[in-house]
Sequence to fold (270 residues):
Amino acid sequence: MFEARLLKSSILKKVLEAIKDLLTQATFDCDDNGIQLQAMDNSHVALVSLLLRADGFDKYRCDRNVTMGMNLGSMTKILKCAGDKDTVTMKAQDNADTVTFVFESPNQEKVSDYEMKLMNLDLEHLGIPETEYSCTIRMPSAEFARMCRDLSQFGESIVISCTKEGVKFSTSGDIGSANIKLAQTASIDKEDEAVIIEMDEPVTLTFACQYLNYFTKATSLSPQVQLSMSADVPLVVEYRIPDIGHIRYYLAPKIEE
Amino acid sequence: MSQSSIRSFFTVT
Fold:
């Protein structure tokens, strides 16, 4: 028996919003520790890794490991039926071929349940090697989203260049070029609003705007985003979801032909 | 510039 209850369905709605542009279907692996999802997008350019820890749920029970292949379009339809203040409970029997979502309004006056067929997804599972990153940049997630959106107007790629002076985001295209430089916040009063740069070695890498924009769909999950970069390895864009886990996006850099 | 695949960076488990 698997049962996981969240007091706020909005977290699950936001998680789905954050992955549905990249993935059409995905496997949710549930065990004692919580729910994990790891999948590459169709073109194998990016990888999404989601963790929702068991202790972040209002109630969590997982007697045996459960693997649930879900169509994310169908799951989105179902979660649209939940009010933001509703609690949501996901339930599945061992070896079941369906999952049930139960939504309860705050005053318990409305209870709805939606049963969804599970899919047999034979997806390969990739191991993510431990990596020491040369640069990590933390900044307000809304600022990152704004920059990606602004720069996307000019070009298809964004060059991220991190040096001891700060971090620079650049792009160029038919109409011209654009650069945004961010320096580390001088005095940190509010951690959520700070830009914090840690650099061992300078790194410059180029990434596809479209994917960075997909990742920023996670903005509402976290006030801060962390970018981790090293030469010739995928960029990691991490949003920590308060009290429950994280969503990490890995993006392969563009390379000289 | 060409887009590399992410698959080659990870190991299949």
Residues 234 and 252 of chain A are 4 Å apart (CA to CA). The two ends of chain A are 51 Å apart (CA to CA). The mean pLDDT of chain A is 94. The longest helix of chain A spans residues 141-152.
